[in-house]
Amino acid sequence: MDSRLDQGIAQYQRQRGEILATLESYRAWLERYTDVESGQSLRLYDLAESLKRDKLLLAFVAEFSRGKSELINALFFADLKQRLLPSDVGRTTMCPTELFYDADSEPYLRLLPIETRLRDDSISRLKRLSIEWSSIRLDPADPQQMSAALRSLADVKRVAVAEAQAMGLCDAGDIVKSHDGMVEIPVWRYAMINFPHPLLKSGLAILDTPGLNALGSEPELTLNTIPNAHGVLFLLATDTGVTRSDLEIWENSVRHHANHHVAILNKVDMLWDELKSEAEIEQSIHKQKQHTAQQLQLAEDQVLALSAQKALLGKIRGDQALIQRSGIGALESLLADKIIPDRQVILYKSVCNEVQTMAGASRQSVNMQLEGVRQDLEQLSAFSGKNCEIVTNLRDKLIKEKSAYDATTMNFKITRTLIQEQGRLLLDALAEEVLDEMLVAGRARLEDCWTTPGLVQGMNDLFAQIIQRFHEVEDRATRIVELLDAAYLRFHQEHGFPLLSPPQLTMDNCRQKLAVLMLQVDQFGHDPVNLIMEKRFMVKKFYLSLVAEARGMFMLAKTEADSWLRRSLDPVVMRIRDHKKQLEIRIENIKQVHDNLDNLQARTLALKSQQATLEQQQAEIGVILQGSACLSATVASQI
Fold first, then answer.
1. Does 559 have pLDDT greater than 80?
2. What are the residue ranges of helices labelled H in 327-451?
3. What are the backbone dihedrals phi and psi of residue 38, each rounded to the nearest 5 degrees, phi first?
């Protein structure tokens, strides 16, 4: 029987498919009934692709030997009847490991050599360079081959202290412990597993992170990967509770990020004392959960106690009593009932709202055309005999109306040109070259001073410049909105257009991401270890990761600003175009009647046919909008 988690992810996939279907229905409607503009078509394509590529990322974070890999095996891969990830004593994953499904590639394990740390390349960049990775083909039908291949994740090797120091993988404690000038380091820096598991096919992605040393030596994980996860599962040992190293990981890598946090007291079976009653055992577990919640400053329902090993064993054996006692059901329910639905709401807000805005504008355009046709039919039905004067007056009235409309649109062309120029300047303010200039200047100041204080000062200066740039962009956007407000009002007053209110552009989303980066810089700068020890290598690595994050955030700001410009300008441009087309059709209809009053009946039939076509368009776009609204309500009700 499917678990609650299986059901939740299946629902996530189903509703994502429904959003895609709505998107496709609207795109098909546009192609059938309109001359869809290339920009609008491209935007719909981008929205669909973003949905198809969307992943629900769960990050498993903990110190070594807390049972992360075993919990991943129990949650997602028990149906394989064996451990997918190595989790034996002394044989656990030694590098960050990402599990996902890519339909465009055969199953594989890709391993990034640890030596790539000698370069300035980020993991994100190296993911695009397949030549840098060692690749092993995986055969899902051969459990032995899979198991042998994935044991590579636990590989370590001994290298000279100097070599480890050059890669930033050796501290004073390691040197003291080394009796032969050699230290042990991981063989691999990062691993990617493309595996056709049903849950991964449904859009789930998993990140298994090693302990404190690996998180500290790869700032990209703390600055990018973990903050972008939709849920973070922080594992602790039930018998020890929150240790000093656990708390350091929690404070530096987890706590301050704006996503779901779940603390998991693993290995709860260590408290299953046969000399104690079930009530006494439960009381011990409850006290440990309360204490953990206080230490981590979490609500008590965000702390769970379970046994990953017993859960995996119970699922492999089909032992429902052991599965229930393991406590894994509470975690599965939390993931299915909270984290996954929250991600669905984010999907709706990012895609459905935009589709509804565009489809709503299309429906209003159809409604306006339909109202014009109905008015023409009413006027034609009032004609009697060969009353040429009535037809002539109507024709002249429409021609005059079109002349006035042309004057208004000519005036709007000037406004549109001004808006486009302002929009170009707005986007130029967020161009990559602008950030590059800031970074070049900042790096020049740091080049001879790769110290913690130097990093903090340099990054604070950069962040201040970026924030100032955001203020300038928002000010320019406000001026654009004022121009659009005036244009909307004129078309409303003179031609009966619906009175629209253009959306405001805000950089708050990017400011929040920047605030997280600033917090990370502050934590790094006040870490006593970084202040006391020479950390030139780590300072530089941290700087490069910060720069990569700042660049991504800057590009996000530009993407959001570009999308805002289209959302603001496209509706009025579309209405102007459609209204002009409608007037031209009406004038042509009246002209034909005027030239041949005997053709009155034929023109009336033609208008009725046009009315039927528009009513069909109206009905279809109504169904699309209703479906989108229903999907919105369904997703929102799950929170």
1. yes
2. 328-334, 340-347, 353-381, 388-428, 432-446
3. -60, -35
Please state, in angstroms and rounded to a whole number, the distance separating the CA atoms of residues 273 and 604: 89
pLDDT tens string 467-517:
888 999 999 899 888 888 888 888 778 777 777 777 788 888 888 888 878
- The one-character DSSP state at 262 is E
Sign of the torsion formed by the C-alpha atoms of 154, 159, 162 and 163: negative
Q: How many domains does the chain have?
A: 2
Query: What is the domain range of residue 608?
Result: 345-497+507-624
- Flag the least confident range among 126-140, 313-327, 569-583: 569-583
Q: Does residue 12 lie within any of the structural domains?
A: no
Q: Which residues contact 273 (CB under 8 A, 6 or more apart)?
A: 280, 281
Going by C-alpha positions, the residue among 196, 119, 183, 111 that lies closest to residue 154 is 111
Dihedral of the alpha carbons of 34, 37, 38, 44, in degrees to the nearest 10: -70
DSSP letters, 493-517, are: HHH------PPPP--HHHHHHHHHH
Rounded to whole angstroms, how far apart are CA atoms 499 and 381? 31
Instruction: Give the residue among 461, 460, 464 at the shortest CA–CA distance from 472.
Output: 464
Confidence of residue 258 (pLDDT cuts 50, 70, 90): low
For 134, the 3-state DSSP assignment is strand
Q: How does pLDDT run across 298-348, given as a tens digit for each residue?
A: 988 889 999 999 999 999 999 999 999 999 989 888 888 877 777 777 767
Residue appearing with tokens 């004593």:
89
Residue 8 within a domain: no
Examine the domain organization and report whether 256 and 142 are in the same domain.
Answer: yes
What does the chain come to in residues? 639
Alpha-carbon distance of 608 to 600, in angstroms, equals: 12
Q: Is residue 43 part of a domain?
A: no
Tokens of 509: 């989303």
Location of structure tokens 């079109």: 402
Q: What are φ and ψ of residue 133, in 5° steps?
A: -105, 145
Q: Is the pLDDT of residue 32 over 80?
A: yes
Name residue 238's amino acid.
T
User: In the numeric block, which tokens belong to residue 365?
Assistant: 């355009």
140-144, 344-348, 458-462, 545-549: the lowest-pLDDT one: 344-348
587 in the same domain as 458: yes
Amino acid type, 380: L
Q: Is residue 30 part of a domain?
A: no
